[in-house]
Specification:
The protein is mainly beta. It contains 4 helices and 26 strands. The strands form 6 sheets. The protein has a 5-stranded antiparallel sheet, with no helix packed on it. The chain has a 5-stranded mixed sheet with strand order 20-19-18-26-21, with no helix packed on it. Strands 5-4-8-9 form a 4-stranded antiparallel sheet.
Length: 393
């Protein structure tokens, strides 16, 4: 029973509460326990016993009544945020729609109704234990951005997620045109757990996407979530970049029509300097950056400032200006794994592409297919294989 006045240590316990009893008059005016004036109505057939039977973090809050029914239940945290819920079992049980969050103080106000119609009010409070670890996440793309037709909705978690199904159930994606898609769990290049929502096919231009991640009170297995997340983005024009490494040619298509063809030089065949193949996605337009071969396991092959750099993978494959390789553009693959082009072509390409544009790379001599977690490589899986990576599949 939840007493009207209880110590924090008692209230933070996870054990079931014993009943709060209220007579036909209002039982108490607040947590202080000061009695209100007795009712002048007809006496009740018997007292209604009200109990908060589950008040543990990570579980819905449940309230029961014996000897009567529940007329109304209000559960709110210290910030006034109310846990909505619904009544079942003939009006004798109420369960919140959301789970109780860890490290949170809740007040419970219940109006119960006896068999003769007399109503009474009971009030109580409880505190859930503080979480031992808090999990947080990083969302991509950024809120209110416009992205290319291949950008997935991607979530990277700070701490391990061993209860993937519990987490995935709290993630709701809404699109403006009922796009078919699925979540899939991958290991990010950083080694952290990640879940991406990918459409069955590339997004339709103009699609508006929203995510409601109602994670507050969810245990990921590696830590608790203590807040909800919201984000949304819009899909821009239909652009596809095709890179043919066998012909050393890059073609930018817009709405299915080629708008520019650029001679390029890809990764050197026959070793670790080969390029990746498959579908990559433009991750970022990083401009002028320092590229050091030692950071990608190629020894001291290069260390230079590179202009118009467009990131394609976490492992270090870019499309960028490479004037030192001018003799090979359109003729041979002689780079250290990136897609190089002239300064003029790189400037034009950089200005034209958008984060989220797909880059479809073909070639006989490559180091393999872009993996799902190496940037946004989900498009290299067939639809059924991708759906199977959902924790709810």
């Amino acid at each position: 029973m939840l007493p009207l006045r209880a110590s924090r240590s008692t209230l933070s316990a996870v054990a079931l509460a014993v009943s709060l009893t209220a007579c036909s008059a209002q039982a108490a005016s607040g947590p202080g326990g000061s009695p209100s004036s007795p009712s002048t109505g007809a006496p009740a057939a018997g007292p209604v016993k009200v109990a908060v039977v589950d008040r543990a973090a990570g579980r819905p809050v449940s309230v029961t009544a014996s000897g009567g029914t529940l007329a109304s239940v209000k559960v709110a945290d210290e910030d006034g945020v109310v846990l909505t819920g619904r009544t079942g079992a003939g009006g004798s049980r109420w369960t919140s729609d959301r789970r109780a969050a860890p490290g949170t103080s809740y007040t419970v106000e219940v109006v119960s109704r006896a068999a003769d119609g007399a109503e009474s009010t009971t009030r109580s409070s409880f505190v859930t234990p503080e979480p031992k670890a808090v999990n947080k996440l990083t969302l991509a793309p950024g809120k209110n951005t416009t992205v290319g037709i291949a950008h997935p909705l991607s979530i990277v978690f700070d701490l391990p997620v061993t209860r993937k199904a519990d987490v995935e159930r709290q993630l709701k994606v809404t699109t403006s045109n009922a796009t078919e898609g699925s979540w899939g769990w991958v290991k990010d290049w950083s080694g952290r757990d990640r879940v991406d929502w990918r459409p069955r096919e590339y997004w339709k231009p103009g699609t508006e996407v929203t995510l409601e991640a109602d994670l507050n009170g969810t245990d990921s297995g590696g830590g608790w979530f203590v807040r909800d997340y919201r984000t949304g983005f819009t899909v821009g024009a239909a652009q596809v970049v095709e890179v043919d490494l066998d012909r050393q040619r890059l073609t930018l298509e817009r709405d299915g029509r080629p708008v520019r063809t650029i001679p390029v030089s890809g990764g050197t065949p026959g070793g670790d300097k080969r390029s990746w193949r498959g579908t990559a996605v433009v991750m970022a337009k990083e401009g002028t950056i320092n590229m050091n071969s030692e950071t990608v396991g190629l020894g001291d092959a290069y260390d230079k400032m590179v202009d118009y750099s467009v990131r394609l993978t976490w492992s270090g494959m870019y499309a960028h200006a490479a004037p030192w390789n001018a003799a090979y553009f359109g003729r041979a693959n002689k780079s250290s794994g990136c897609i190089g082009m002239s300064d003029e072509d790189a400037a034009s390409f950089y200005a034209s592409v958008r984060v989220g544009d797909p880059v479809e790379i073909t070639g006989r001599d490559t180091k393999g297919v872009v993996a799902e977690g190496n940037g946004y490589g989900a498009w290299n899986l067939g639809w059924e294989a991708w759906k199977a990576k959902s924790a709810l599949a």
